[in-house]
Design goal:
The chain is α/β, with parallel strands linked by helices. The protein folds into 2 domains: 129 residues, Response regulator (Rossmann fold, 3-Layer(aba) Sandwich); 174 residues, 3-Layer(aba) Sandwich (Rossmann fold), CATH 3.40.50.2300. It is built from 11 helices and 14 strands.
């Protein structure tokens, strides 16, 4: 019995020692420190029009919302709408940088010089300018190949016009807009080589009363299908009210004139905005660069084609989209002549981006003169 008691006593000691060892082990552990939560990236957008314009600015704001959806609490976005292309733009952009926004998007051509000036003052802020061509170490440019959407719309216009006369409500006489007028006309002429395009310039991106007046003038002068390079839905609404046909621009405008609507040439800014934001968050953003995205990158599309557009025309649009995505189709391929009959691209010759970026002429079939040209 004595030996048995000693055995139990020894077992108790061993068990107690094991408990002590376990306890000691726990005491040496320290809870892992919770890393401080990173501050969200502040991003600001300057808009030339109202977010509810149904076109250009609406499309940019959809891109801003795509950033929020993609990155959640890693970002904080803000915007200022109706910022004119004037000294006010410089003030607004400088204020955005001063408020701690480290990524600033300027969404119209006229912001180029003001943004370039502010970028020189705020070296730690990253600036992105839409549709321009000037850059800096902390400023990029980005653009969309809107002429691809214009060309596809032209094919539909060429098929659907009853009298061969098209009308374009144009905004500002810069290469971007002139290129779109020409591309629209070239697309239409693949269907009917005798197509004529009339143009009325309103010298503004967003001015619904002027856009309405211009659309009415074009209809009164014989145009039965209207196209636009302006930001509101006024052109489509006018066509609807007068029993003509028209296209949406920058965003899907079907709802503004469902009877008149033939299709909408839209821009999707989300792919570029999401990529740029990710590059900044991951430390991969680089300045002094530029991109020009189109159908291939998912930035341009022609959507909501009207039911009465013939199936063969719709099939042709699908072929062009496939060709643009694959790089096997080129819109600007000769022979192409200007309105005086001078050959600007020889048979089989294709235009490069430098050529397209300097467009300052009308192609054959476009009537009138470009404002400011000799």
């Amino acid at each position: 019995m004595i030996r048995s008691s000693k055995r139990y006593s020894l077992a108790a000691v061993v068990a107690f020692a094991a408990l002590l060892l376990v306890g000691c082990g726990k005491k040496t552990e320290t809870p892992a420190a919770t890393p401080p939560k990173a501050e969200p990236l502040k991003i600001a957008f300057a808009y030339v029009g109202p977010v509810g314009d149904g076109g250009w600015t609406f499309a940019h704001d959809n891109g801003r919302k795509a950033i929020e959806k993609e990155f959640g609490d890693k970002v904080v976005t803000t915007f200022t709408e109706n910022v004119p292309e004037s000294a006010d733009a410089e003030r607004v952009i400088r204020d955005m940088a001063s408020q701690g926004n480290k990524l600033v998007f300027g969404t119209t051509f006229g912001y180029m010089e003001p943004m370039l000036k502010v970028a020189a003052e705020f070296k730690d802020t990253k600036f992105e300018h839409a549709t321009g061509y000037k850059r800096a170490a902390n400023m990029n440019s980005y653009d969309s190949r809107t002429y691809e959407g214009a060309y596809m719309a032209g094919i539909i216009a060429g098929k659907m016009t009853q009298n061969g006369t098209l009308g374009v409500v144009a905004s500002i006489p810069i290469p971007e807009v002139i290129r779109n007028i020409n591309s629209f006309t070239l697309g239409a002429q693949t269907v009917n080589p005798n197509i004529k395009t009339k143009v009325v310039w309103v010298n503004a991106w967003f001015d619904p009363p002027k856009e309405t007046e211009a659309a009415t003038s074009l209809i009164n002068s014989g145009a039965d299908v209207l196209f636009q390079n302006t930001d509101s839905a006024a052109v489509l609404k006018t066509a609807e009210s007068k029993g003509k046909r028209a296209f949406g621009w920058d965003s899907d405008m079907t709802a503004y004139g469902p009877k008149a609507h033939l299709a909408s040439a839209i821009i999707n800014w989300a792919p570029y905005y999401v990529k740029t934001t990710r590059d900044v968050l991951e430390g991969n953003w680089k300045g002094d660069g530029g991109v020009w995205w189109g159908v291939k990158e998912g930035a341009i599309d022609l959507v909501s084609i009207a039911e009465d557009v013939p199936s063969e025309t719709k099939a042709r649009i699908d072929e062009i989209k496939s060709g643009l995505k694959a790089g096997t189709f080129n819109i600007w391929k000769g022979p192409i002549k200007d309105q005086s009959g001078k050959e600007i691209l020889k048979d089989g010759e294709t235009a490069d981006d430098k050529f397209l970026g300097a467009t300052n002429f009308y192609v054959k079939g476009v009537e009138g003169k470009i404002p400011g040209s000799k």
